[in-house]
Amino acid sequence: KRIDDSITDFIFYDGVASIVAGFGFASLFQSLYDFIENPSQGFKFGTGITFLGGFVGGAGVFIAVYFIFRKRLKGRLIDSISVIPCCILIGHALGRIGCFFAGCCYGKHSEKFGIYFKELGQKVIPTQLYEAIFLFLAFAVCSFLWIKYNFKYNLCVYFISYGVFRFIIEFFRDDDRGKLFKLLSPSQFWAVIMVIAGIVLIFALKPLFAKREKELALIKEKSTINTDEKK
Predict the structure, then answer these.
(1) pLDDT digits (tens, 9 = 90+) for 191-229
(2) How far apart are CA 158 and CA 205, in angstroms?
(3) Does residue 48 contact residue 35 with C-beta atoms inside 8 Å?
(4) Backbone angles phi, psi at 121, to 5 degrees
(5) Beta carbons of 172 and 127 less than 8 angstroms apart
(6) Interior angle at CA 53, CA 100 and CA 114, nearest 5
(7) Which of 40, 59, 69, 207 is 20 to 30 A distant from 154 in Cα terms?
(8) In whole angstroms, what is the distance from residue 197 CA to residue 17 CA?
(9) Whole-number Å distance between alpha carbons of 181 and 185
(10) How many angstroms separate the CA atoms of 81 and 64, rounded?
(11) What is the DSSP pairing of strand 115-117 with strand 122-124?
């Protein structure tokens, strides 16, 4: 599908800013989790990174920049909003494969379903690969829906489906990333937020899509009138 050049430029530059901010927030949130779990050690920045912390920070920057420049975009970003989660999904999937080779984000010990990690000296569930498979499948589904049916709610699908998956896969994770609550890991907390945000987005985006459809219909009508007048 053809995407306006101004939109691709905006997504690129805003995306770069979001990635930079995302890395900073990923480190900040992980440091915060570690501090909450063990305050006696003090707050130490750069103790590790967490994807969902980076996602929240990066998404926040992306949205903030969008609202700053939204008048220049004239509503056209809404036409391409479904391609954004496709980009996030493929990048996240490749990142999880990187986690597997780096030996981080691993699962619990399992002789039957585990893969031997030399650094750990035991077999653990390869939760990184399970998540990568889910993300590749989600990328394929969202891409198909957008290309074939011009499906407008891919962002909602991403938020809800990944939130549910991440909440479940966390029960099989065994790497220490701190705790926010006794029963939930930090990632499970953000997973719940993602699901709620996805549901809210369905209702928030619906009037925006309806408004954009009216704008496009009006533009098409004016174009038809101008063409008839030239004839």
Answers:
(1) 998 899 999 989 988 988 888 778 777 767 776 666 655
(2) 14
(3) no
(4) 70, 25
(5) yes
(6) 25
(7) 69
(8) 22
(9) 7
(10) 15
(11) antiparallel
Q: Compute CA distances 220 → 6, 213, 229, whole Å.
A: 20, 10, 14
- Per-residue confidence (pLDDT) for residue 180, from 0 to 100: 63
**Is the torsion defined by CA of 15, 20, 23, 26 positive or negative?**
negative
Q: Roughly how many angstroms between the first and final C-alpha of the chain, as a whole number?
A: 30
Cβ atoms within 10 Å of 168's Cβ, excluding its own: 11
What ranges in 74-112 are assigned the alpha helix state H? 84-102
**Nearest-angstrom CA–CA distance, 109 and 126:** 10
Token pair belonging to 128? 């990184």
Residue 6 CA to residue 170 CA, distance in Å, equals 39
Tokens of 114: 């585990």
- Checking if the pLDDT of 63 tops 70, the result is no
pLDDT tens digits along 196-206: 999 998 998 89
Instruction: For the chain, give every domain's residue range.
Output: 1-74, 82-231
State the burial class of residue 60 (Cβ atoms within 10 Å of its Cβ: 0-12, 13-18, 19+): middle
Mark 180-195 as b/e (b = at least 16 C-beta within 10 Å): beeeebbbbbbbeebb
Average pLDDT across the chain, whole number: 77
Write down how long the chain is. 231
Is residue 22 a contact partner of residue 50, using CB atoms and an 8 Å limit?
no
- pTM of this prediction? 0.73
Q: Which tokens go with 148?
A: 């074939």
Query: Which conformational region is residue 150 in: left (phi greater than 0), alpha (psi within -120 to 50 degrees), or beta?
Result: left
